Amino acid sequence: MLVNNGFANDTESASRGKGMPVLRYIPTSVPCEASIMEDIEAGVDGAFEAMVTALTKPLTAEEKSPKPKEIEKPARIIFKGSLEEVSRFFYQRGWTDGLPIIPPTEEAVADMLTGTDLPPDHLLGKLESRLGKATIEKIAVNAVMAGALPTYMPVLIAGTKLLLESERGFMGYTTFGFSTGSWAPFWIINGPVRNEINVNNSSGAFSPGNIANAAIGRAMGLIIKNIGGVRKGVEDMGVMGNPMKYSMVIAENEEESPWEPLHVEYGYRQEESTITVSYPQTYLQHWPYGSDAEGILRAVIGYIIRGMRYTFIFTPPHAKNLAREGWTKEDIKEFISEYARIPGSHFNNIPVIGGARPSLYKGKISARDTDTVALIRDPRFIRIIVAGGPGAFIAHTVGGGATPGKKQTQKIELPANWDKLVKKYKNIVPTYAKY
Amino acid sequence: MDDEWLVPIKLNKVNFKGRLPYLIFKGGLGAVERVKKGEFPMTNKANNEYEVLSPWAEADPIPFRGISPRIEGLAGKKIGLFRNSKRAALPLLNVVGRRLKEKFPTAELTEFANQRPNEVIIEQDAKEEFEDWLKGVDAVVAAFGD
Amino acid sequence: MTEKFNEALRVLNPRGEREATPARGISPRVVELEGKRIGIYWNGKPDGDYFWDTIEGLLKKKFPTATVLRYNGPGDLGEALAAKMAKEVDTFLYGVGD
């Protein structure tokens, strides 16, 4: 197998994970996505002899029959040390996001487990890529590390289920959790739980400063890393990385939205709580051209970039203006997918994965250079939510996400003592002194 | 300048030789105390020990298997060139093919491409076609681009 | 024995120190708006001019003998413009658009 030399660790991890620890692979100097023949030829020439040897040199005993892997049973109590030493120990084992963690002591984890009725050894599933067992206790350990409150456990359990039940193939977690594209999990929370655990949906909803928005995303990232075994440069081959991987969590402002909330669109009842995931690569913001529907929507289509799945976040005033002029969420999605267009000639230099070429009308006619082609082929690739503070900015997230109709939303199940838990933690909110 | 600030909360001060004034914040918002010049209260180092649980999940062992036996030389052999859908894999294998033919003119080359990104070929409808192709080759060179 | 993270730690204040800003009151009010020179300042944010046009219309309707003077500039007026306006108006309106 020929791979780029930067992917050696990834190749070994992937082949071990599929049961082939002794794959004969040849790292080459051919750059990723190379299109310069000189580079490709040089890379092949540099690897050719090794390739022939790999095909012909007789197998060693280990290659014929590798030693079986021992059952992995990491110690439950892994370390004892001071606050500083614990953080450093975890960091040096690649278990953190680089920031200090809250030590997951027995007591702290037991406290976190009050956020769920499920027993600590309950297994939700085995999370790719190392098929680590996602038990409730392991979720709680990572939740403590992230600084989560026990009332976030139902959300984290639902989020983990979403990852476990993600569609296989290109549009699921097994691509976006690992890809060179550095796609970050973006979690949208709907339903009553938003306000019960104080997930910010108003001013600065995406900015740091709210425990729920910060810790839920952070905990999910640690779950992916420590349960799924997805590490930077080994399994997570994100080239540039993505700051949204620290945390990208928002609640929809259902109270001030003129439309039905996201989870109701997806068939849940208003009074149910849900979490929905997508995997944006890009986050951008812009002004509208005016505060009327035309000013808003023309600005939105002027800022569409190439991607696969989109979420548009409108502030309550913009949403109300759009609704006042008769625009529903569906109208907006159809408008954007119809009118965000680029010239067909634009695709001449763009390599398209799988060989598909841009086309017109359900793929029936290939686009010419003189045609304009929709950037978003299907309105179902778009989500719209209402959030944000006072002010006139519109936000887009652009990246990956589920195939329409496939799993993208998970109901949040609450423990029996939920009301009591909420009461205990509801008032942990920041207050700001005047100065 | 007056060093002393009004404080609603008293701190336990310990005399400590030092030069810089030190600001301690304890208690509710706005509760500020500036320590007099020349005094350092004793500060805690967070040196209590914590026994902590591992965040690293258990995983069941995956049965390992070895790799296919090797061929003796490439002359006269059927070599399969397999690629994924990423951009550089095809031109790379084209160069590999040319070099193989230059060095082993009697080798026969055939190709197979997995056109569906990030989907394993044996989990697709093309599985049978792929397995038939595999039966017809003696060795495979695979190029995985990204 | 494991411990919960609940030992009391004395910690330093992360907030920066600052000089106290001298507090001052606001300008004396006019008793009424009839016959007065009312300044309106627009900080240039889009559509703010429409907003102030509407205010001007309402003021003129309600206080026909008042004079409305329009100004615009950056968000921070600066000393020179503030001094100029102070001479030319009896009272003024400033709105922060964004």
Describe this structure in words.
The complex is a heterotrimer of chains A (435), B (146) and C (98). Chain A has 15 helices and 16 strands. Chain A has 435 residues and is α+β, with helices and mostly antiparallel strands. In chain A, a hairpin with a 4-residue loop joins strand 11 and strand 12. In chain A, helix 6 packs across helix 7 and helix 7 crosses helix 10. The longest helix of chain A has 20 residues. Chain A is flat and about 75 Å long. Chain B is of the alpha/beta class and 146 residues long. Chain B folds into 2 domains: 42 residues, no CATH class; 66 residues, no CATH class. Chain B is built from 2 helices and 6 strands, in the order E-E-E-E-H-E-H-E. The longest helix of chain B has 15 residues. The N terminus of chain B is likely disordered. With 98 residues, chain C is of the alpha/beta class. In chain C, 27% of the residues lie in helices and 17% in strands. Chain C contains 2 helices and 3 strands. Classes of the chains: A alpha+beta (435), B alpha/beta (146), C alpha/beta (98). Chains in contact: A-B, A-C, B-C. Chains A and B meet through strand 1, helix 1, helix 2, helix 3 and strand 3 of A and strand 3, helix 1 and strand 6 of B.
